[in-house]
Amino acid sequence: MSTLKNKVQLIGNVGNVPEITNLENGKKVAKFSIATNESYKDSKGEKVIDTQWHTIVAWGKIAEIVEKYVGKGKEVALEGKLTSRSYETAVGEKRYVTEVFVGEILLLGIKGANATE
Prior knowledge:
Order of helices and strands: EEEEHEE
Number of domains: 1
Strand content: over 45%
Shape: globular
Structural class: mainly beta
Strand order of the largest sheet: 1-3-4-6-5
Number of strands: 6
Radius of gyration: 16 Å
Distance between the termini: 41 Å
Largest sheet: 5 strands, mixed, barrel
CATH superfamily: Nucleic acid-binding proteins
Helix content: under 10%
């Protein structure tokens, strides 16, 4: 059970074209968002779809895979860890960010389908 301390598994659709940054040390980082949907019936028996947006960060080889194969609308499964950080804006406001750092990614959907823009 010790390997489950900080583990996130998500399946969803990419919401934007991944932003790829090439760092000075030669490594890459990819940032993008995915949407996960959950449906349930409300008190009137009507179907409700709840969409949650998650900020995703991938480094190194995984960022290279994201750059080549992941585009807006593409369905992906990923596993990683949840991270939180804070920063201060130029006007002194404190902001908090929660992200998923990817350890593994699996490209889903129809083979050969191109969902990039």
